[in-house]
Write a structure and sequence with these properties.
about 170 residues, globular
Length: about 170
């Protein structure tokens, strides 16, 4: 019987290997595809899982891009043992394994209010384009829980997050 530490290490190694084939938002074809999928949404697009409405999902995706673009700071930090645990799970943020449905998210990224669909869609597209314009950036804000991400990892992570939520709304 393997120890739980061995299981965690094997999961980590698998995640690193799987990250090599992950799509990146910095790839122009991937970027275009994400924008086209967003344009397929409408105010009545139903979620296949989860509690968010389409306008809430757009707002949620904006928040993560605002953090990535340095426009918003995320509260909290990891230190000591917590930092080690988060570092082991870090590759799951940008590997090619889809995230499970209904994953917990940071409290400050949970959206409960409702917003104007068109306004939120337009602002999300603006934030995506701003993020993509930084593809040559090497000075990114550090994530408070996972620490440093390379530019390549950030492109993959943002793609994975957007893809996850666009699939949630069947586009």
């Amino acid at each position: 019987m393997r120890s739980s530490l061995t299981d965690i290490l094997l999961l980590y190694i698998s995640s690193v290997i799987n990250s090599m084939s992950m799509k990146s938002l910095f790839d122009s074809k991937v970027h275009d595809n994400i924008l086209k999928r967003i344009e397929c949404l409408d105010n009545n697009s139903p979620a296949l899982w989860g509690k968010m409405s389409v306008d809430q999902m757009l707002k949620h995706c904006q928040l993560t891009l605002e953090i990535a673009n340095g426009k918003r700071e995320m509260k909290g930090s990891a230190n000591g043992f917590k930092k080690i645990i988060f570092s082991l799970f870090k590759p799951m943020m940008y590997n090619d394994k889809p995230w499970r449905h209904n994953l917990k998210t940071a409290k400050e990224l949970i959206i409960t209010n409702h917003y104007n669909f068109t306004t939120e869609k337009d602002y999300l597209i603006e934030l995506i384009n701003e993020f993509v314009s930084k593809k040559d950036n090497t000075n990114w804000p550090e994530h408070p829980l996972f620490g440093h991400f390379t530019t390549d990892q950030r492109g993959k992570m943002q793609y994975k997050h957007l893809d996850h939520h666009l699939k949630q709304f069947d586009v």
